[in-house]
Amino acid sequence: IKTLIKKLNEVMVANKTLSKASRSVAETLKSFKFFVVGSKQTEEERDIESSLSYMGEVLHRIEEARDALNASSETYLKKLDEFRKTTIGKAKNKKKEFDKTTQRYCTMIENNAKIPTKRSDLFQEADANLQMQTKKFREETLDNLYIYT
């Protein structure tokens, strides 16, 4: 998603540069006037000026539509980035926490397996602690699964 956002931002920057250049061309076209050599403009010169002016207006309208598209694209990008930071960020943090919990639980099981059964008081205490940790681990496992659904 980061790469997608980066590429879309690059497109937005290029689009703004294109828009600026198009607006400049549109203004030039709208204000184009022939230098009259004689006393009057010919009909052909008037038609060319009119056509160029119309083309400038069309380009101007295109840029207005591009502005609306850019505004909606920027809103979309903000929402996409917000989603990436909040939802995906939370899931990554939860996964890290779950990995640590899993590691602690596995270590506890290994340590419990090493306790000699001859010391019943120590063994019973460790077994009770393990049962409590097993319950906690199962709850965290279900919480972790809930994130991905």
UniProtKB/TrEMBL annotation:
Gene Ontology molecular function, alphabetical: GTPase activator activity
Gene Ontology cellular component list: cytoplasm
The BAR domain, residue ranges: 1-144
Domain of life: Eukaryota
InterPro entries in the record: AH/BAR_dom_sf, BAR_dom, GRAF_fam
Annotated Pfam families: BAR_3
Listed PANTHER family: OLIGOPHRENIN 1, RHO GTPASE-ACTIVATING PROTEIN GRAF
Protein name as annotated: BAR domain-containing protein
Species of provenance: Adineta steineri
